[in-house]
Each structure stands twice: as structure tokens, then as C-alpha cells.
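Help! Submission page says 'invalid entity' but I think these are all valid:
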Amino acid sequence: MAMAGHAQNKITVAVAANMQYTMDALKVEFKKTDSTEIEVVLGASGQLTQQIMQGAPFDIFVSADTDYPAKLAASNFAAARPEIYTRGVLVLWSVKPGVQLDPTLKNLVSENIQHIAIANPTTAPYGKAAKALMEKYNIYDKIKSKIVTGESITQASQFIATSAADIGFTAKSIVISNQMKGIGHWIELKEEDYPAILQAAVLLKYGQENRARESKKFYDFLVSPPAKEIYKKFGYLAK
Amino acid sequence: MIHFDIEKKLHSANGEFILHASGKIDSGAFVSLYGASGAGKTSFLRMLAGLMKPDNGSIWADDIAWYDAQKRIDISPQKRRIGLVFQDYALFPNMNVRANIAFALPKNERSSFVDELLELTNLVNLASRKTEHLSGGERQRVALARAIARKPSLLLLDEPLSAIDHEMRMQLQSTLLNIHRKFKLTTILVSHDAGEIIKLSDRVIHLKDGLMTPLLAPSRMFMSNGDNSILLGDIVEIERTGSESFVVVLLSDRMVRISSAACEQALSIGDSIKLTYDRNFPRITKLESTPSD
Amino acid sequence: MIEFEPFWLTFKLAFFATVILFLVSIPLGSWLSKKGNIAKTCVEVLVSMPLVLPPTVFGFYLLVAFSPENAFGGFLDHWLGLRFVFSFGGLLVASVIYSLPFMVHPIQSGFSSLPPSLKEAAYSLGKSRWDTLIHVLLPGIKSSLIAGVILTFAHTVGEFGVVLMIGGNIPGKTRTASIAIYDEVEAFRYGNANVYAVILLILSFVVLFTMYWRNRRTQQVRIL
């Protein structure tokens, strides 16, 4: 990736893995108006952050949360203030036919639910949101022992999709993706019930120093109206 | 009495052949099995021991069928009451000398029998040694003591003395004779060494081209037509100096250097030969027992 | 906050996985060390497969297989009352399969290197297969057995990907030390991660040192 980054009309964007398909669509849209090639490096937000802090040659970082971009800004790796580009939607999902879905989570205590999958609440924003939601409805302590934790929202979704877990919290962008569409059933949870799952991107110093014009252009594109249409299509709330 | 009549297809360096072994060995007899390498001597012992299954035939020990192809009997080696001394001795490396012998002792046997065997095989001082620190001759004695600890009805010795130096071999031959006299075990010894065979055995069987000769007295086997100056040996070296050449022959206990004029045919190192004297002139004849040549 | 439960869990897992693999690999390794047909070669290859598959991929397949909605997982759940997803039992089964080559390979090559005459000698002395195994064959491959135990134990202690995939990170049940360390790193708590890692290293060092040391001492007794 370091080699590829040297071409003048090409930028390298580090992208949170669960933004993969959205990013494909964004690239197509961006191509319509600009000849700059976008090279995408996928990874977990945390790992990409660690790589950037170790000097990885990325021009822009598109995170799945706001903490990692903030951390990069605080550590002097950012060329500009992180921008929130979209907001995730938390859903309750099950592929088991008998499982009821209730936005107030009452049935999570029921005996036929043995395992509830969430993403790691200390590192993944969807996990943090799910935990907050359960705490809001005062059931977190009751069902704590049923919770199984995936390292990322992707892994939590695997637990649900394989029905290893009876039910779980995941992202709307996952349940409406081409891969998961039509599998099981899901409901959107009320926005006001959990802390907003904000996703931020950050223009990195590396991009600023090496390809200032191209990097800035794509960075601005991420918060432009055409990009917002794409976020909606992929299951996010345009902020 | 052991009575066998078995067939087995074997593979040797010279291709496949059928071993057909039949004969009768009286109880208490000491029989030597003689033949070229690859003739099937070891296979024959393994079939008697139950470690290899014949293709056809039967093996009877007294009135018990050990193997009978028609009656579909093939009893396991454990039940055959044999003692087997392997070419590589097969001592148990995790046990010391005494433990190797004691391991073979049947459950109801008194343990003083181990001491008796240690004494008999001259191993008393080595009883607590690990087997890996023993010399070839010492290992051989352990293997022998272990094989007879079970008081087998048939003792099978697969070239037990071939890898041992001359002096040690003499001692072990005496030990074998003592043991045979003491326990009256029916014994089959595989050996290449005519001297050894003559010294130890009552009868000898020659295994050749897949067939067994009838049991003969060793003296008859190794003596041709009343000529009692026959010697058997191996070519160990061929020397050429100018026009003359010599062969060096290893006889049972010494080496002799003889002009190659005595040779009836071309010889190479390793050939087994018969050395005879015809009116004081030596004559070297190659033994036919190496099948390929 | 440093918890000790992940260590206790890790060593419990490694201990049981090693014991189970030891018992399974002796018959399996002995069978594989003998000549055989194509079926045996297939089994030999299957045993080595965990070396090829990335742990997370292997873990994902197990997750699918163990899921109560699928035929195998359903059978376990319905007929045997076993749920292998998100349970210690599941981690144990996964570790046993995933560490299989680390135990089977040394034991298999140990058996292959034993001269066949040792077994035959014991048989000819009237010893049963069991007596022969216990008194002759296993002592004969002792160093292979120890190598298998050490490799398996160490490999299970360090296993991360499989545990991550099917464990569900449940404290006290499936949250092993390697997961705990990973979580700390992910959360940028490098200090805690270091403490966990150092404890894991020290404990593993002590366990492995004890095994090697005992092995060395018994070897020396052999020489005397």
C-alpha cells in the first residue's frame, strides 16, 4: 500500500470493515466527477488506528465511531478536525422463527432466549449503544449472564446469523445488506433510547503532506449531499 | 514335537518365490537352519512364532494346532509358548537387564528363576544395567535369558551370534549348549556358520530355492563323499600383485591367503566358498547357496 | 482492573484439552504409524488440516456446526443436551480438534521410530496388547509423548482465533487470557494488556519449565 500511495492521482483510504459496501458505492459516485483513484484498505477501526499511529501511509481514515478519529486528532495525526459523516442505526435481530422482537426488550428475559449477542461494549459503538439500551430498560443486570460478546459488530452478527445466539443487537446496515437481506427478522430500535452511534472520518497529516488536493476533495465529498443519499440507502441516518 | 507343512509367497531381492517348508522336529532336538540370505529363514521362524501368517498349510505343536489354514486356526503369538531371539535382540530400552528378564516371567513363576537365569547367562553383575550400555554379546545373553524365562516349548534363535566377535561367540555357544541341556528345549537356530552348526546342533535343515532338505546330521551336510578336509569360509579380500593374485579367505576362526589359481571360477568379495584339499593342492569352490549367481 | 479468572480458565482449558488429546492420540497415532490404505492417508491429512485453516475460519465453521439450528448442533442439543456454542465445553471441543496435530504428530512419529521387533518380542513373551502398550511401547516413545504434551499445552494456552469465534467472551466461561489481552489492547489499555501478558508468560514459563525439568531429570536417571 505504501508503494501504491506514491502515484499522484491516487489516494489511500483506511475504511472500517463494516463500511465496505457503502464505500464501494461512494467510490462509484465520486468517480463521476473526479479522476482520482481511491484505494481502500479495510480493517477494524481500532486496528487501523493503531496502524496509523505506527506510521501507516493512509491519507484519510473513515472510522465506524468517533473515538478513534478523536484519538488520532489528539495524538497529532490529523490534518483537520474529524468530521461526523453519518450515524448508525441499532437493530434487534433474530433468525429464529419463534423469537419475538420487542423495542422495549421485555422478552430478552424469557427462558427461550439463552444467548444475546452484542458487540464488545468497551470498544465497539454498537455494543456500547446496545448496553446503554439494556440499562435504560433496567434489564442489563438480569440478562448479563446471557450476553455473548463479539469483538466487532461483524462478529456479533455472525453469532446471530448462524443462530448460535438466539437474538442480538446489530447494525441496520448489516441486516439490509445484500448478504443478509431476508435472513431472519429485525426491528429498528428507537433513536432516542440509545446514545447516537456517530461515525467520523478524519483527514490525516500523511494525506495533507503528500496529496493535499486529492485528499481534501474526497474528504469533503464524504459529507456532501450525494454521499448522504448513499448512506441512507445503506441503512444509516444521514446526519 | 513340532510338525509343520506351510507355504508362503515371499519377496526377496531376486523377486518373488514360494517358500514351502515341511518337516518334523522332535521334542528336545537342536536343529539348525542353514541357507543363503533371502532364502526365507527369518520368515520361516516368524511363521512358527505366529508373527507372520502362512498362505497355506498347518503347524502343529504336539497335539495343538498353532496354525491350520483349512480349519481356520491361527493362534496368537502370545499363546504359542515360544521363545524368540531376534537378530536385533529387541531388548526393552526402558528396563534394566533384570527387568527385561523378569518382564517375561509368567505370573505364577517364582522370581528366583530370574536369578537363576542371570547366573546361567553370566549376567549377575550387569543385572541393574540399562540395556543401552551393554555390548553386543551382553545384549545377546539378555535376549536369550529373556526368551527362556517363559519356559517355552520352542526356542527360536534368529542368527543370534552373527554380529558378535569370535571369542564371545565361543562363550555364547557354550551357554546355548548348557541351556539346551538343562531345559531340554526344542530349539531352532538360524546360522551361516558351519562350525557353529556342527558344534551345537543334532540336525540341520538346508533352505534353498524355497524348499527344505530333509533333516540331516550336520556331519553329513557339510562333508562330501568321505572327504573330511572340507572347510567353509567367505572371501574377504582379493589381492592382485603383478601377474599373481590371491584371495583372502575368512575361515571360522582364522584367515588364510591362497593363490587364486586354486579358484575354480571367478569370485568376488563376500562370496561363500568351500575350501578343499586335493592331494595337498587347495581348491576353492563357490557355494551355490547365493541364489542369483 | 486485572482479573485472575481468565488465567484460571486458560489453564483449565489447556489442561483438559491436553489430557483428552493424550488419550485420543495414543490409539490414533499408533494406528496412523502402521502401513495403510488410502483411507488412512485421508485421516492423516485431516489431522493436519487445523495447521492449514486460519483459526478464525476454523472457528467460524465450528460456530455454524455447533449452532443448535443446524443438524449436528441440533443433534447434540436435542439428544445429548450439549450446547457447544458459548460454553466451556465448546471451547474444549474446539481446542481438542484444533490442537490435534500437535499431539498426534509427535506420537505418530514416535511409534514409527520404534523397531517393530519390540512389540513382537513382547507378544512372543506372552504379553497382551495392553501390557505391551503400557510396559514397552509407551515407555519407548516417552520423549515423543512429552513433546506432544508440551506442544499441545502451549498451543492451547496461546490459542486466540478459535476461542474468539465460538466463545462469546463470557467472563468465567469463555473469556480466556488471550482474549482478555486482546480486549485490553483494543481498548488502548496497554498497561493492563502488558500485565496480563506478563502473567501469562510467567505462568506458562513455570508450567513448561516444570515439564522440561522433570523430563531432563528422568532422562538423567536413565543414563545412570
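Support: the input was valid. A stray whitespace character was the problem, and the output above is from the cleaned input. The interface with chain A takes residues 60, 63-64, 66-70, 83, 85-86, 164-170, 182-183, 186-188 of chain C (CB under 8 Å).
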